[in-house]
């Protein structure tokens, strides 16, 4: 039987699950980044309306978190242990700067971070808020 989909049904369902997980993760990170920008004077959303900048920043944070962040954290784990977590803070700062730079470079909107410590505080806020919001959204879509 011919199918209008190039993928078999099982593969398509798996692909749809991955995409829906990524989109829900992007939504969670957008909410968390919005809270972060609202609470911290060292974070500024650039865009008209500002949600465009926050959404672009969150998109790149989601892409980084899904692709290179686990690999970099695994490679840096021994150094992170030796430095009592300082390396993990630096890696998170670098990834937030990278997401900000990518959003501003590609879309001319994004989140501007004023310094290292604003990034550290911002990553803590994003982590807490995304855990809470992810639990709520995950509970809404659970089977």
UniProtKB/TrEMBL annotation:
**Key words, A-Z:** Membrane, Transmembrane, Transmembrane helix
- Show the coiled coil region(s): none
Where does the chain cross the membrane? 22-44, 50-68, 75-96, 116-142
State the InterPro entries in the record.
Phage_holin_4_2 (IPR007165)
What PANTHER family does the entry give?
SLR0284 PROTEIN
What name does this protein carry?
Phage holin family protein
